[in-house]
Amino acid sequence: MNEEQLQALYMETLAEEGYRPKLDEDSDIIFKAEGRTLYIRMYSDDTEYFQLVLPNFWKIESEEERELALIAANHATRITKVAKVFVTKANTCASIEMFLPDPSLFGKVVNRAVAALRNGAEHFAEKMQDLEYTEEDEPSEFGESEE
To answer: Which domain holds residue 28?
Structure first.
């Protein structure tokens, strides 16, 4: 199956699943799921490789936040099946990457792949919140002010 046939199959399957896919200028397939924009990156030299991406879901605003994001991304990747969460210079992204030698199986994995991306992003956000919580935010031992 060539890239154009694969695009057509993916777009048809996404439409059947209730998504509204379209092609971008790079021939990637873009669609929304639960209010988030996702895309399937196409590789003409490896049509068996499947990559679903949730781009830029957490903006990195400082070097300190970037360090925390690396810890949270590692955590989310470790505990979420199939999903990879990674930090770029200014953002955090997630992806599902797998080999799909039989493209007709795409319909059987797409919804689970979307759910895994959501789970990876949620695990990342939860870990970021945990990391940002400091001892200063905790009440004193007896619930009293330390002043």
So the answer is: 3-133
